[in-house]
C-alpha cells in the first residue's frame, strides 16, 4: 500500500503552536451552558465552567480570509494534508482544576502524531493534537488530546 | 442507585436529547464555529450529501460529560473523559445519553464509567468512557 504520508508531512510531528491566552467570563460560560443544555445551576449562572467549556474558549478565531468555503477556519498550525474532508474524531480530557470566571487560561497545542489507516471507502488520515491548559500561576487545569480523521 | 456505593453494572440516569436547529446554532455560535454543515441546510444536504443538519461532535461529547456530573453531583470530581464520534446524528433525531459503571476501585476511590450516545435505531453513535474520583466520607 502506498502511503499518503510523506517524510515532509511526518516531519511536522512535534510542532508546537504559540501559547494562546484567553479570559474566562461569566457571560461566555452562561452562553456555553445554555447552548449545551446544562441543568446544574452553577453552570447556567456562570459560577463555574462546565467540563468542556475550554472547547469553546480556545476555538480558533480567525479573520474572514482564513475561513474555507465550507465555513471551517483554516488552522495554520496544521500542515496541509493530502485528504481534505474532516470527519469529527474524538477527545480525551484529563482534569486537574475547575475553571471559573476571571481565570486567565493559556493553551499550548502540540501536534503529537500523524498516521494513516485504510477505511471502508478509501484511506483515512488521523492526526493527534495535545492541548495543555494552564492558569496564570502555571498550574495545570486540564490536558486535552484530540484525534481528527480526514477522508 | 446510590452514588455512595456504586457497583459494577449500575446504570447512570439516562436522558433523551432532541437537539433542534436553535440549540445547534447557539452551540456553534458559542464556539465561533462557522462550519456550514451545522446551519446551512442546502449546503449540508446538497453539497455534502448529509440527510440534514449535522449535530456537532463535541456537543455530543458534552452531553456525555453532563450525564456523569449530574449523577456524580457533589460526591466527587470528573478526573477524565474520552469519547469518539463514530457516526453522525442530525437535527430532528431523539438521542439517548447514558452510561454504566464498569469498575470500582475502593482504595483509590475511583469509579470507571462506560458512556454512550445512542440514536433511535439503538446504535451507539458516540461511545465514551470516564473516570471519577469520589470525595472521602
Description of the structure:
The complex is a heterodimer of chains A (about 150) and B (about 140). With about 150 residues, chain A is α+β, with helices and mostly antiparallel strands. Chain A has one domain: Roll (Thiol Ester Dehydrase, Chain A). Helices cover about 15% and strands about 35% of the residues of chain A. Chain A has four helices and five strands; from the N terminus they run H-E-H-H-H-E-E-E-E. Chain A has a five-stranded antiparallel β-sheet, with no helix packed on it. In chain A, a hairpin with a 2-residue loop joins strand 3 and strand 4. Chain B starts with 14 loop residues before the first strand and ends with a strand. In chain B, a hairpin with a 4-residue loop joins strand 3 and strand 4. Chain B is of the alpha+beta class and about 140 residues long. Chain B has a five-stranded antiparallel β-sheet with strand order 1-3-4-5-2, covered by helices on one side. Strand 2 of chain A pairs antiparallel with strand 2 of chain B.
Strand order of the largest sheet of chain B: 1-3-4-5-2
Structural class by SSE content of chain B: alpha+beta
Rg measurement of chain A, Å? 17 Å
The CATH fourth-level homologous superfamily of chain A? Hotdog Thioesterase
- How far apart, in Å, are the first and last alpha carbons of chain A? 16 Å
Distance between the termini of chain B: 18 Å
Uncertain runs of chain A are none
| Percentage beta strand of chain A | 35-45%
Can you identify the CATH class of the domain at 15-19 and 56-134 in chain B?
A: Alpha Beta
Number of strands of chain B: 5
Shape of chain B: elongated
- H/I helix tally of chain B: 3
Number of spatially distinct domains of chain A: 1
Secondary structure tally: strands of chain A = 5
Structural class of chain A: alpha+beta
Amino acid at each position: 500500500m502506498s502511503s499518503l504520508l510523506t517524510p515532509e508531512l511526518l516531519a511536522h510531528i512535534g510542532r508546537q503552536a504559540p501559547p494562546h491566552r484567553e479570559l474566562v467570563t461569566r457571560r461566555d460560560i452562561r452562553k456555553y451552558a445554555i447552548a449545551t443544555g446544562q441543568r446544574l445551576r452553577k453552570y447556567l449562572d456562570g459560577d463555574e465552567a462546565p467540563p468542556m467549556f475550554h472547547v469553546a474558549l480556545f476555538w480558533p478565531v480567525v479573520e474572514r480570509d482564513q475561513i474555507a468555503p465550507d465555513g471551517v477556519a483554516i488552522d495554520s498550525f496544521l500542515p496541509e494534508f493530502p485528504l481534505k474532508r474532516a470527519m469529527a474524531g474524538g477527545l480525551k480530557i484529563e482534569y486537574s482544576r475547575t475553571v471559573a470566571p476571571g481565570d486567565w487560561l493559556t493553551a499550548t497545542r502540540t501536534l503529537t502524531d500523524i498516521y494513516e489507516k485504510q477505511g471502508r471507502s478509501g484511506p483515512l488520515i488521523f492526526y493527534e493534537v495535545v492541548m495543555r491548559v494552564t492558569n496564570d500561576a502555571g498550574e495545570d487545569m486540564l490536558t486535552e488530546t484530540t484525534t481528527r480523521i480526514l477522508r | 442507585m446510590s452514588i455512595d456505593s456504586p457497583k459494577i453494572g449500575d446504570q447512570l440516569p439516562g436522558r433523551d436529547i432532541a437537539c433542534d436547529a436553535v440549540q445547534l446554532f447557539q452551540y456553534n455560535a458559542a464556539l465561533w464555529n462557522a462550519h456550514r454543515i451545522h446551519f446551512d441546510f442546502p449546503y449540508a444536504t446538497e453539497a455534502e450529501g448529509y440527510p440534514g443538519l449535522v449535530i456537532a461532535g463535541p456537543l455530543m461529547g458534552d452531553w456525555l460529560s453532563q450525564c456523569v456530573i449530574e449523577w456524580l453531583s457533589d460526591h466527587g470530581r470528573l478526573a477524565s473523559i474520552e469519547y469518539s464520534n463514530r457516526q453522525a446524528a442530525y437535527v430532528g433525531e431523539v438521542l439517548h445519553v447514558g452510561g454504566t459503571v464498569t469498575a470500582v476501585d475502593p482504595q483509590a476511590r475511583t469509579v470507571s464509567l462506560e458512556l454512550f450516545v445512542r440514536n433511535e435505531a439503538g446504535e451507539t453513535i458516540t461511545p465514551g468512557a470516564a473516570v471519577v474520583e469520589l470525595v472521602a466520607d
